[in-house]
Automatic annotation (TrEMBL):
Pfam families: Anticodon_3, tRNA-synt_1g. The lineage of its organism: Eukaryota, Fungi, Dikarya, Basidiomycota, Agaricomycotina. This is Probable methionine--tRNA ligase, mitochondrial. It comes from the Eukaryota. Signal peptide: none annotated. Keywords: Aminoacyl-tRNA synthetase, ATP-binding, Ligase, Nucleotide-binding, Protein biosynthesis.
Amino acid sequence: SFTTFTNEKPWYITTPIFYPNASPHIGHLYSLVTADIFARYHRLENPDRPVHFVTGTDEHGSKIQKAAMMRGMEPRTFCDEISEHFRRLAKGANISHTTFIRTSEERHLNTVHHVWRQLESKNLIYRGTYTGWYSITDECFYTDSQVIHPSPQSEESTPISKETSSPVEFTQETNYMFRLSSLQDKLLSHFLANPDFIYPSNYPEDIIHSLKNEPLQDISISRPRSRVKWGVEVPGDPEHTVYVWVDAVLSYLTGIGYPWNGVRKHEDMGGWPVDLQVIGKDIVRFHAIYLPAILLALELPLQTRILAHAHWTSSQKKMSKSLGNTTDPFQAIEEFGLDSVRWYLTRVGGKFRDDVDWSHDQLSKHHKEFQSLLGNFFLRVTSNTILKRVQDAQTMLKQADTDQAVPISNQETKNWFQDMVSLQQETNKYRAAYADLLEATTVLPDKITQNLRKLDVADAMEEIVDVLRIANRSLSDVAPWSPSSSSCAALVTAEACLETLRVVGICLQPFAPDVAGRLLDALGVEERTWMASKKRGTLNVHDVKGVKLFRNEKDRVL
Ligand code: ME8
């Protein structure tokens, strides 16, 4: 109806589009899962608002060209093969993306050409000679001051980038240049006016500092075809291909159907601007300077927020395809089950600030913790002993109800009344034992929301863990299975713990969607939105189906 209509645009989130120069590793899975958590959360939080979620592969440029050559393959065939591994990982990891974009697709070519012509028409492109250092690994130029030259004594013979330690080579070529320098003031104003533009906050601080103190250089945005054959042709100049990073960042526009035929209303911009871009800290400059500059030039709104996460390392060295020190995500999923890997990656890496060293032992520890906090709790709450005792309690209560209707003699009425009073007292005692748990359960959804708004995934997950810890502790304290315990204890336990499981199940969906789904199925929970988690549920322990919450998911991956 008109009253409920909002012209809120779809919520839009992206991951980097990855180089298919080698198979994906844990670092790529980490970006995918992080973005997936936000996408899933937003769908639950506002089921009426569509979520667009773009991921994919970045297929052009010398890095890919070289990798294909090493395998003796044509770049396109090579990309077809490796891009498929990324797609398979996204599917295997239950990523809820809505678009998987490949930059070699026709639709993307059109975007790049359209943008190029726009920039040209605004006189932002000119021909110039670029002299400097180029790193194929990073696909970017470095000035002399950004390069470390080997000392004559050292065994190393190649200069490397200060920032990334990747080898660089000296290059001089005539290219098309983009007047990035003309956008310096606008960029600075944007950063100053939007302190939350990049998270964590150390990145914008550094950028503001350099935008204030150093002149932005124009950047080279094409490569001679003689050197980089595998790329988008510069419109009107077959001797040049478009610089792969310009090509790549435009995929976020292609992913939602840009250009929109000149339309500028939110509803017609397919979800633009992007609400959240999840990226690794290695590619901040491209997302925080280059893409915003192009968007400013195109007079499009800038991205709303960027989440730049730290890296997974292996023996303290960044895991990378180029170094070859990677962990295979498929293997980890096969060994521990998908949701335990998702759980470990984001519970440990969900602060995003510090690098984390990958550890098989830690993964195993977190897998066990997750299983015991949730899986064992579920089993204990729904055990046969509890079921039986709940039934006894219910029969007793029913009996009491019937008796109340026909009190026979005065003495019997008295006895009945006393029974009722002690039953009530007992019930209250057990309710008190679960009071903290129910309080924590009630506020859980809002606490998660608050943390996710701050982009703090680790703390959001910690809230779930806290509730499960209280739940396990309260349950052990009441011990409704012990021979000395009453059926009343079981009844109150089922009531409180099933409510906790229901709310936890709903709240777990963004983080561990399979386990959460199985749990909610087992409990018979139909309404699974964020809103529903805040309404008190009325589950019956007799309706709960037995289920194995944790299992390995070979089928999903292969
Ligand atoms: O840079 N730890 O692609 P890429 C955490 N095509 N995250 C990691 C990681 C690690 N060790 N290694 C990679 C590119 N990542 C470009 C992007 S976007 C328009 C173009 C993640 O295959 C992280 O998100 O090298 C990082 O930014 C991205 O993968 C780089 O992937």
